[in-house]
Amino acid sequence: MDQSEPPSGRSSSQSRLFRIGRDSHGNWVVQDQQGLCGGFFVNRADALKLAMFENGNRPQAVIMVPGVLELDMGKKPHDTRPHPMSTRAAQQRAA
Fold first, then answer.
1. Distance of CA 63 to CAs 1, 3, 18, 35, Å?
2. Sign of CA dihedral 87, 6, 73, 65
3. How many CB atoms lie within 10 A of CB 89?
4. What is the pLDDT, as a whole number, of residue 12?
């Protein structure tokens, strides 16, 4: 595999959106919008490295989540429901 190409094989025009934040235990979390790729990290820099590598090195496709971001490994590829934690964070910001 070419080091400059994301493992998913997607071109940069089809890059996924990634969210980075901390979970309720203080771990750094990164997960793509579809919930298909992500993980836990010791620090923000490593989480950002994965997100940038997976999305074709597009910083505009990385979102830093200000609230709690829990890693959701239960989503299926066709599941488009928003994650409950991201919905709660949006409601708290609107209040």
1. 27, 23, 6, 14
2. negative
3. 17
4. 42
